[in-house]
Amino acid sequence: MDDGSVHFTVLGAGFLLATGLGWLVHRSHFCAMGGVSDWIHIGDSGRLRAWLLAAAVALGAVSLMRLAGFIDLEQATFPPYRAPRLVWLRHLLGGLVFGVGMTLASGCANRTLVRAAAGNMKSLVVLACMALTAYLMVWTPAYARFFEPWLLVTAIDLESLGYHSQALGMLWFGTPAADAWLGIGLGLAGAAVALAASDLSAHRDKWASGLGVGLVIAAGWALTAGPLGTAWRDWAAFTAAPPARVVAQSYTFVSPLADLVHYLGAAQDLARINFGMLGMLGVIVGAHLDARARGLVRVEWFADGADALRHIVGGLLMGVGGVLAMGCTIGQAVTGVSTLALGAFITFPSLIVGAAVTMKLQYAWLERA
């Protein structure tokens, strides 16, 4: 497939996988923010466990594919999850800011796409705000000017310490070898599955969603970091006008919003259309198909000005936090975790803390009012 058909094959397959993801998330009510909310307000950890299970399944599947030599994550990825320079404060701050934002906006990036697909106009506004700040962070000097100078003070240059990656296998054993990857990956995945399953009888309905989301993320890696992905990158390396983001990757939903705004600035340049953008479109299509089939398409708008302001601020914060953390509740807490990148393990709990603290403050404010 040297005529460009490999490019359309990868993007088409990525779109179809994302369509399944959107359908599953809408059908099952899989929601990271909802999981934290259920846990904080009513003590129900079902949806939170489903999120944890998704990360565990993705990590376990990727570890097995890595052991089999089917995928190669030693190469460049998007985002650069396993980069040898670890800016730990970027992940910590980004996760906290994104967690605050998703709480104010009533859902993370993935859930916002799903809700918009079912007719929620509030979510369209949130997506527009998220896209604006993400675009400023990715495609303008905003990050370099306002964040990079002080964030880089906390950077740890792992290469100077003898590590060429921040993958846990490299940091713990000094090697990216498959057996080290398998041991750590399956060990962590098994522990996470055990934790998620500790109350299985009460949350059987949540298992399918966590399992499905995790498998879709693993399938994204199989598609772009496996043999077809190798052919895709080889084709792009020798084409006259290589398309954007032709690297190993799976699903994430903040940077693709920035790329969408970038593409709209020159819509005739089809080379700007990438895997992440098709992934977003697939989630919207899949969620809309399920909502339409079940008669759940409902137009919703802001209740009042305060509601609008809360969602706008939340969207703006998610754009900033998602770029800082190099991913969202899916893009880092599931996709990033599946690569065993240390940054992802900093971001994941930061997302939960940011959301939980914001929910507690909102509840205290309502009680006072």
Plain-language structure description:
It contains 16 helices and 2 strands. With 369 residues, it is mainly α. The protein has one domain (5-368). A two-stranded antiparallel ribbon has the order 1-2. The radius of gyration is 20 Å and the shape is globular.
Q: Counting H and I runs of at least 4 residues, what is the number of helices?
A: 16
User: What level of helicity do the residues show?
Assistant: 55-70%
Neighbour order of strands in the largest sheet:
1-2
Which strand-content bin applies to the residues? Answer: under 5%
Shape: globular
Q: Number of domains in the coordinates?
A: 1
Helices and strands, in order, run as: HHHEHHHHHEHHHHHHHH
* Terminal residue distance: 64 Å
- Secondary-structure class: mainly alpha
Number of strands: 2
State the major sheet. 2 strands, antiparallel
What does the average pLDDT come to?
91
Rg over C-alpha atoms, rounded to the nearest angstrom: 20 Å
Uncertain regions: pLDDT < 50 for 5+ in a row? none
